[in-house]
Write a structure and sequence with these properties.
7-stranded mixed sheet; 8 helices; Uracil-DNA Glycosylase, subunit E; alpha/beta; 238 residues; 37% helix
C-alpha cells in the first residue's frame, strides 16, 4: 500500500497527502506500535493469509467535505488490517450502509482500500490513528495524536459539522476545536443525538457503531440514519 490511500478519494491534494504520509510513519506511542504489530503477527484464523497494514491509519474522504465523521481509532482487524478507517470490519459495514442510505457514499460497504468506495461531502478520520488494546487509548496516546486532527481541521476549510461516534470522539472534537480558537457556546453532555455548538462548528453525538452497540440494539440503523441526516443538515446550512 502507499500513502495514496490517505489522499481523499484519490484526489491530488498535496497538503492532505503530506499529512497522511506523516501519520503513516508515526511511531510516537510505543504501546500502540507494539499492539498494532502484534495484531498483524497473530491474526485470527479468518485473516491468517492476509497481509496487514499494521501502521497508523490516515483520514480519507472528500477534500471539500462539509461533514467530518470522527471515530475513536482503527480496529485491530479492521483498519489496522486494511489500511483505511472503518474498512473491513462490522463497524464500517454499519456506518457505510448508513452513509449510502443518506446519499453520502456510493456503496453500502467497504472491505478494501481499492474496492471503489467514494464518499461525497464527508471526510472520515479518528481521534487516535493506531489500534489500541481493548479500544482504550491512554491519555498520552490521545494527546500524541491530537496534532493530526488539528491539522486536518485546518486543511478541511469547508467543514461545518462533526459527527462524533462515541464519547471519546465527542470530547476530542470539543478539545480540538477549542485549541483552534473556537469557543464552546453550548457544552452539552455526550449522548446519542446530542448537539454542541463550538464556534462556527456544530457537533452531533452518536453511539459508536461497534458490535457491542449494534448487536445489542443500543444503536439501530434508524437511529444512525437520523443523526447522519441531522449532522448533514447542520453541515449544509451555512
Amino acid at each position: 500500500m502507499t500513502t495514496d490511500q490517505g489522499v481523499p478519494n484519490g484526489a491530488p491534494i498535496p497538503d492532505l497527502a503530506e499529512l497522511a504520509g506523516e501519520v503513516i510513519s508515526c511511531r510516537r506511542c510505543p504501546r500502540l506500535v507494539a499492539w498494532r504489530e502484534r495484531a498483524a503477527a497473530y491474526p485470527p484464523a479468518r485473516y491468517a493469509t492476509e497481509e496487514y497494514w499494521a501502521r497508523p491509519v490516515p483520514g480519507f474522504g472528500d477534500p471539500a467535505a462539509r461533514l467530518l465523521v470522527l471515530g475513536l481509532a482503527p480496529a485491530a482487524h479492521g483498519g489496522n488490517r486494511s489500511g483505511r478507517l472503518f474498512t473491513g470490519d462490522r463497524s464500517g459495514d454499519f456506518l457505510f450502509a448508513a452513509l449510502n442510505r443518506a446519499g453520502l457514499a456510493n456503496q453500502p460497504g467497504s472491505v478494501a482500500v481499492d474496492d471503489g468506495l467514494v464518499v461525497s461531502g464527508v471526510y472520515i478520520t479518528a481521534a487516535v490513528r493506531c489500534a489500541p488494546p481493548d479500544n482504550k487509548p491512554l491519555p498520552s496516546e490521545r494527546d500524541n495524536c491530537r496534532p493530526y486532527l488539528l491539522r486536518e481541521l485546518g486543511l478541511l476549510t469547508d467543514i461545518r459539522a462533526i459527527l462524533a461516534l462515541g464519547r471519546f470522539a465527542w470530547d476530542a472534537a470539543r478539545t480540538s476545536l477549542e485549541l483552534l480558537g473556537q469557543h464552546t457556546v453550548d457544552g452539552a453532555r455526550f449522548g446519542h443525538g446530542a448537539e454542541m455548538k463550538v464556534g462556527r462548528y456544530r457537533v452531533v453525538g452518536s453511539y459508536h457503531p461497534s458490535q457491542q452497540n449494534t448487536f445489542t440494539g443500543r444503536l439501530t440503523p434508524v437511529m444512525l440514519d437520523r443523526v447522519i441526516v441531522r449532522a448533514w443538515e447542520l453541515a449544509a446550512a451555512d
